[in-house]
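Q: Can I see a sequence and its folded structure?
A: Here is a first one.
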Amino acid sequence: MAVEPTIQHLGRTTQATVRGGDVQLKHFRNALLLKDFVVATERENFLELRRRAYLAQDDWPMRVIVRRDGNRFDIRYFLYIPCGWIAGFTFLMLLVLPFAGIPNAPLAFGLATVMAILAIYKQKIDCRPDARFWQERPRRRWGETMERLLREAFGHP
């Protein structure tokens, strides 16, 4: 009897709750490794995987965090904006805008500041299937991919 994963989109992260064992976890881990994830941290009851950005393919960096409590797995996954990107954007904004010769530079500086604040606020992005406006296609694509991987790995007890 297959058990469906419980998936909730929490605004900044997507959380899946599934039941399984070592075999299912290993199958899920290996499926993520085939999708170009790398293991960042691996302990007895904790696993974190990361995937780098492929911006030319409209793909943002992503993290998957797996916490285990017996046969219950709490899996959180999200796209994110790396702190280095935000710091680099802010540094360039402060370095380039004053010397760029842009007419109405205070307006450009204000818009750039708003963008930096928005990036910090929306640093983590969930993978909901009805995503709109902000990274719509990658969020939908990864939401579908993760649901499929979860069903394949944890669908059979």
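Q: Show me another, different protein.
A: A second, unrelated one:
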Amino acid sequence: MIKRALIIISLLFLTTAPSYAWHNRMAVTPFGDYCPMASRYGMHSHNISVSDAEHALSEYYSKKGYSIKVLKVTGRFMKIDVLKGKTVVDTVIFDRHTGRLRSIY
């Protein structure tokens, strides 16, 4: 009887454990959003330059009261931290081909 109770309790703990791993940060980029200064979704036939993308994203997030920091550029994708002051509030992946933004949170 005690073994059965311990097994049930441990199974309940194991099934609810991932919920404790969630971070407290809220994404500031709506799911599936795109940067209108970079493109209308899917309109480009080529990748925009990294400097044009950085400028467009700076404008996009400055209207919301945030700044950006480019972390990594790989092919057509850019990984960007969105900052409120010096605090990272979101990390997004930007597709330079489509203008699409995806929060990694």
